[in-house]
Design goal:
The protein is an alpha+beta fold. It has one domain. About 40% of the residues lie in helices and about 25% in strands. The protein is built from two helices and four strands; from the N terminus they run ββαββα. It has helices spanning about 25-30, 50-70; strands spanning about 10-15, 20-25, 35, 40-45. The strands form two sheets. The chain has a two-stranded antiparallel sheet. Strands 3-4 form a two-stranded antiparallel ribbon. The mean pLDDT is about 95.
Length: about 70
């Protein structure tokens, strides 16, 4: 499901070399692992909490939109 936040970027640190890589939230929602461009380490992404918080924000935005429509 597309979120208003999907195009926002987060810095993801490599657990091996600590280099941060920017990834869009939409990309993070669709992928479970990534490869560091600096050291080549492939590591898993635990995005459960991220997806849960995005869903919470999306619900709040929908509620706000519905409230504004009633005004």
């Amino acid at each position: 499901m597309k979120s208003i936040l999907d195009d926002e970027e987060l810095n993801i640190p490599c657990p091996r070399c600590s280099k941060e890589t920017k990834k869009k939230i939409g990309w993070l929602k669709r992928n479970r692992e990534m490869t560091c461009s600096a050291c080549g380490e492939t590591f898993g992404l635990d995005t459960k909490e991220l997806r849960r918080e995005i869903a919470r924000v999306d619900r709040a935005i929908r509620d706000l939109e519905n409230t504004l429509k009633r005004l």
